[in-house]
Amino acid sequence: MLPAELRSAEAEALKAVEAALAADPGGLWTVEFRFEGLRIMPVALRLLPALTPTRPGLRLLFPDAGAAALARRDAPDQAGQLASLGDLMRLQQADGGSEGPLMLVAPTPADYEEVEQVCAQHRGPVLLLNGRLEDAAVGIGTGARERRKGFLAGWQCAYALIPTGDGALRRAYPADWELYRCDPDGYRAAARFETRPDPEQQAEALAAGGVGRSLQAVDRFIEGLRS
């Protein structure tokens, strides 16, 4: 069943993250809430204290110093756990690496090199919250492309909730990926996948199930998750 609103999705994500980290305590894990217009910083600042009791030492890393400063302003009580990628890179250079759980908040392809360097020098699990590190235009030469592919392939999905044109895609570790279709009277499970389905697989599954589209219902679902 899909969560009805954002706070329910966050609670669901917390359980999935805990299960993922228990299964692979030093792994690279992704968490995705892919809603147009969603402000991810408040989500990150709510996830931080919720995860800290079981993951002491957890730090949030933002792509730049400006975003980290805004986070400290909004959450002064958590300021000691908030930093930028550059802050941690300097710490790693001084100490020969870093330890403890990290959550990287919404890095972009422009941050790819820094993220890869931070992960290479880090001893502990890393969560990637709404990150977008893939960019086919970045990396010239076969060696750079292969290195990038290898790094990106090392990430596993702990949680994902992604609205689509005809419904939604959801994954909460350790369960399979679930595709929901949007019918006029609500959302219904349409298919399960062991790995993340590509758009063609999603379209085939929805077509096989007989899709009833309701854009109004999709809008209500997304609006509830933004709030």
Describe this protein's structure.
By secondary structure, the chain is an alpha/beta fold. Strand 9 and strand 10 form a beta hairpin. The strands form two sheets. It has a nine-stranded mixed β-sheet, with helices on both faces. The protein has eight helices and eleven strands. The radius of gyration is 18 Å and the shape is globular.
Task: Outline the fold blueprint.
Layout: H1 6-23, E1 28-33, H2 40-51, E2 59-62, H3 65-74, E3 82-84, H4 85-95, E4 98-99, E5 102-105, H5 112-120, E6 122-123, E7 126-129, H6 142-153, E8 155-164, E9 167-172, E10 177-183, E11 186-193, H7 199-209, H8 215-226
Parallel strand pairs: 1-7, 1-8, 2-3, 2-5, 4-6, 5-7
Antiparallel strand pairs: 8-9, 9-10, 10-11
Helix pairs in contact: 4-5
Summed up, what is this model?
By secondary structure, this protein is α/β, with parallel strands linked by helices. Helix content is 42%, strand content 25%. A hairpin with a 4-residue loop joins strand 9 (167-172) and strand 10 (177-183).
Question: What attributes characterize this protein structure?
Answer:
227 residues; nine-stranded mixed beta sheet; two-stranded parallel ribbon; globular
Mean pLDDT across all residues, rounded? 90
Neighbour order of strands in the largest sheet: 3-2-5-7-1-8-9-10-11
Distance between the first and last residues' Cα:
19 Å
Secondary-structure class:
alpha/beta
Unreliable spans are 211-218
Which series of helices and strands comes N to C? HEHEHEHEEHEEHEEEEHH
- Main beta sheet: strand number and arrangement? 9 strands, mixed
Strand content: 15-25%
Q: Provide a count of the helices.
A: 8
What's the β-strand tally?
A: 11
- C-alpha geometry: globular
User: Helix share of residues?
Assistant: 40-55%
Radius of gyration: 18 Å
